[in-house]
Description:
With 308 residues, the chain is of the alpha/beta class.
Amino acid sequence: MISxxxxxxxxxxxxxTLTAVPAMHAGEPVEVLVVDASGGHLDHxxxxxxxxxxxxxxxxxxxxxxxxxQRNAGVRxxxxxxxxxxxxxxxxxxGWLPALLAPLRKEDEDIVAGVATGPRDRxxxxxxxxxxxxxxxxxxxxxxxxxxxxxxxxxDGFDEAFEYGSDVDFSWRVLDAGYRIRxxxxxxxxxxxxxxxxxxxxxxxxxxxxxxxxxxxxxxxPRLPTTEPMVVAYPIYLLGLPVALLASVAAGVSTAVxxxxxxxxxxxxxxxxxxxxxxxxxxxxxxxxxxxxxGAGVLAELTRRRRR
Length: 308
């Protein structure tokens, strides 16, 4: 039995996913299970898809984002020995499920991650980087993921202390437990990432999540500047921005300040030309904005932790 688990909260795009996913098959029995925290707002979709198992979910008191809680509930309710995650709004490409499950069934892998891309007319920020040449991954999200139930039990599921980032935490703990995350680049789902405003909100949330991840997995901190410099460089850049602004302003209003300092701010801003050039194929301006907002999220989480 294969259990396809979809979590949702007030996402009408779930209808498209539930229409597409049951049509997939991998030569084995498949069940589709929805864990819905919409408080009854999507009951009409449950009625429209009677073959889908529908589990209403009530977030625990005080929980604003219940993503990891819903994932754990979905796996606990699943009947299959293999669990597949995809997200509300995802539309699988032809051959998705067989390609995702093949390494589990034919090569005895324990966890496999597919690829998620935006629609062709509205590509995601990093869709051009979606093709993964590596056979095994350092981390993965749950938007397109299959794993054995035994692996989930071995790492105690998803950490419910997280809001966003629980999927990466899960994958890091999987690696720490000695498993390898197999890549399945032919297992593709299409997902509309939304407009620019939604991407900005997502980048901020992901920055906060990343800071929280490294505060939990402190053994990874020494490697951070080389493995993920964005988490370090952009928060530092944002901290230095007010200093550069003050230096330039001071040079403009006071003759006692060396006049060359009026160029400090333009020069500081020009540093962004480096990441802009390196990410030009993904759209320089939106990538730099994404990274700056991401860095702001990192700083926000570090500040919140320090105040506590």
